Amino acid sequence: MTFITDLSKEDLQGKRVLVRASYDLPLDEQGAITDERRVIDSLPTIQFLLEQEAKIILFAHSGRPKGKVDPLRSMKVVGECLSKHLNTNVKTLKDCVGNEVEQAITKMQNKEIILLENVRFHKEEKSKDENERTEFGKQMAAFADIYIQDAYANAHHDQASMTAVPKFIPCYIGIALKKELDALQPLENPEQPYVAIIGGAKAEKVNVVKNLLKKVDKIIIGGILANTFLKASGVDIGNSKYDEETLPLIKDLPKEKIIIPIDVVAAESFDKDAKTVIVDTNNVPPTNLIIDIGPKTIQLYAETLKKAKTVVWCGPIGVNEWDSGIQGTKQIAETLAQIKETTYVLIGGGDSGAAIEKLNLEEKMGHVSTGGGATLTWLSGKGLVAVDILNK
Description:
CATH superfamily of the largest domain: Phosphoglycerate kinase, N-terminal domain
Helix content: 25-40%
Shape: elongated
CATH topology of the largest domain: Rossmann fold
Structural class: alpha/beta
Number of strands: 15
Order of helices and strands: HEHEHEHEHEHEHEHEHHEEEEHEHEHEHH
Largest sheet: 6 strands, parallel
Strand order of the largest sheet: 3-4-2-1-5-6
Oligomer: single chain
Distance between the termini: 9 Å
CATH class of the largest domain: Alpha Beta
């Protein structure tokens, strides 16, 4: 792999540099950004290119507009955020391909920054037809001399802006992506004991568990996935959510390394103000639903983590949005903060990363990733397609 920081000012000055960034940001009902972390993480690459006097063309996706223009998912709000952080004007164009885009790029001056419109406004970006993706990528590649891959959060997706553009122009890894890849390296040959915390719901998490069982000493299970494990073991989980698709997959897993809850917080309804009870897992009231782990489980999980030298955490332990459902997450996070000096801790992004930020514990973790889906894909052993293509 070749990194953008390997290039000199002579290599980059006056060059049109197309940077694929991660700007799929959470927005409120008014369309305002609620978490700017991915924008902030992209700044070092942009600032490096400014120092080399390059012409900087940023592009990314936002949301799932299904190949149609959606004003609520325009990149304009991202351009405004970038302008604020860079203290310079970042112009957002009205498209990511076409004559107007070509003309705007032709007129660019050194150190100028342009942000292209949402690539997912074009159905070709996510087309299942490889030829369509390749042709769309070729159009975008024609605007630039160099391509930089800096979008870790999307690195597991085979989409035009991620895997087609690099086929046509020289490509390099950006600073944000390098930081993420470096953070994964301690998990290649982890210092033991190695403990994984896996929460969430979907069947894809079981693939992660299967692959991790080859390396870890213990896997701690939380969230809806824990409910599914409990149900698979014959426990009556009341009205709790679980994943039907995952049940048969779980039954075939070896249980020696897997730790599941022994007590839980069960609510009378799925409401942040609902009355709750703390019960052992075999005593969940039939009309209640599990929203968090209980104090015995917190202690069990904490004792396991305190023995670890390497920890990776992906997925929520409970309903993190509610005070009644975040105590398990909070206690686990505080335990990880306590062992920071002796243990490498990687938070896999997504809901786990959001919870760590909410608890103001980011600085006490080894690394908080910006890409939950990409981290899960890597942990499942599948590799990252948008990174792998850069090695070809």
